[in-house]
Amino acid sequence: xxxxxxxxxxxxxxxxxxxxxxxxxxxxxxxxxxxxxxxxxxxxxxxxxxxxxxxxxxxxxxxxxxxxxxxxxxxxxxxxxxxxxxxxxxxxxxxxxxxxxxxxxxxxxxxxxxxxxxxxxxxxxxxxxxxxxxxxxxxxxxxxxxxxxxxxxxxxxxxxxxxxxxxxxxxxxxxxxxxxxxxxxxxxxxxxxxxxxxxxxxxxxxxxxxxxxxxxxxxxxxxxxxxxxxxxxxxxxxxxxxxxxxxxxxxxxxxxxxxxxxxxxxxxxxxxxxxxxxxxxxxxxxxxxxxxxxxxxxxxxxxxxxxxxxxxxxxxxxxxxxxxxxxxxxxxxxxxxxxxxxxxxxxxxxxxxxxxxxxxxxxxxxxxxxxxxxx
Length: 375
Prior knowledge:
alpha+beta; six-stranded antiparallel β-sheet; two-stranded antiparallel sheet; 12 strands
């Protein structure tokens, strides 16, 4: 029997986003570009008739040259999909020195972990013994050290991607809002949304440290050290000696990229240097010594014109560093992000493990369920 809801006259359906796709490029300063078709891109936002507009059209090469000439830096490709009301975003960061950005460092380390897991679990899962769900979970979770650490590196890299994606979105929204409000004369302003930025900056440096330390533990395990004791980059650098570096492709990569170096005669010890040392100092500053947003100058942002005839601006949010130069927090983060991605991409390839995508064997399917797409 149907019972009328006491508030039925006030009921309204929750609107669901229809199926859609969009492919974007994220740049520093809050600018984004949206792909219209194979090689036509639109730029947003630009100032036109006193309001934020979408501009176009550009080829990808034209767009890149136009923005780089005006001081913008490419950050990542972003694929956004809506299916049956559900939303998913795939973030593919630029990897310096690499032509194909389809596979991020997180993807490569995830492939390493999955391949190791496949080798370990396949004989156990294919045994004829009947297994409960708890049995399957126990088998999957009983990872060996290299598999566990590769998975931790991948998850930390994905968290790092998410932090950068959210900061890019904050900048983009602020750029649109400031243009819409007419704040194009350099006036500084703040909103309650700034708490979101503080959180994501803190998150970025937390995950940057996690990636660094999980990589160190992975290397320690490979060269025969106890990765539960040598579980940070600081401890790894303190423990290694010349023979360790000579025998490890990953340590050789750290040395050739200028991130570690011998201390010199007569010492046989090594030290962190270059970007790795700078990243550790930044991480300690914004995780242990203070939080971003604590300094007065960091509490407000403003717009800067980069090409007034084209209506192009960038959002600028200061970060107080030990240098006297004026720095934008997103620019600083992207600098660390690029260096991290270059190193972790190279290390995945040098890990000695398979980084290719796992191909699903029908015998590996435990169970499946077909769900009909909602209308």
